Structure formats: structure tokens, C-alpha cells
């Protein structure tokens, strides 16, 4: 009985600590929180991970186009400061989440992913160029 208890206790601690170590650095946030973050951050690093064609149709002010589907995504992403917050968006939120996961794997410390992407940003009448 004591062995089962100790085994159970060990299993619980293992699962708890394994889960704690896999905590993500990615925060998926709604438009108001995303807008507030980029407005209050001096020189925010805003990555638009859509295609250049999509970017040309309109984008968040001061965003830099780093095409997730482009062959130079990693090379271009490496130009950004990994210790500063990075704000990522795409058209609807799917590509930006994948890009955010890649940025996390590259060592970025604080990543904000825009929930709903540029479609939601535009629908909520935020500043776009």
C-alpha cells in the first residue's frame, strides 16, 4: 500500500513539473489588448506574417512583413530582438500561431499573437495602413 502511495505521489510530481516546464511564452490576445500593448510599447516589434500581396492590401501601422510561408522566415525573424516583446498577426490567426510557435522555438521570450488576425483588427476599426 505504501509503495502504491509513493508511486502515485511520484507520478503526480513528475506530471506537475513536466507541465510547468512546458509553459508557453505565447499569449493569444484579443484586439483591444493587442492594440494597447503596441501603443504602450516604445518601438514595438510588429510582425505581419501574411504574404507580401496581403500585406500590400493593408496592414497594422509600423508592421514589418515577414512572410510565414516564405523561404526566409527564420532568417528574417532572427533580425528581431528576442528579449523584447514581439507582436504577431496574420489574416485570421492560424498562420500567426504557427509563426509564434516557431519564434518561441527560436528563443523569443515574449510573444503576443493577435486573436482573429487582421480581419478582426479591421472589423474593430483599429489603425491600419
TrEMBL record:
Family matches, as Gene3D superfamilies: Rhodanese-like domain
Name used for this protein in its record: Rhodanese-like domain-containing protein
PROSITE patterns: RHODANESE_3
Domain Rhodanese positions: 40-126
InterPro entries per record: Rhodanese-like_dom, Rhodanese-like_dom_sf, Thiosulfate_ST/Rhodanese-like
Native species: Flavobacterium glycines
Source species, domain of life: Bacteria
Pfam families attached to this UniProt entry: Rhodanese
PANTHER family according to UniProt: RHODANESE-LIKE DOMAIN-CONTAINING PROTEIN 15, CHLOROPLASTIC
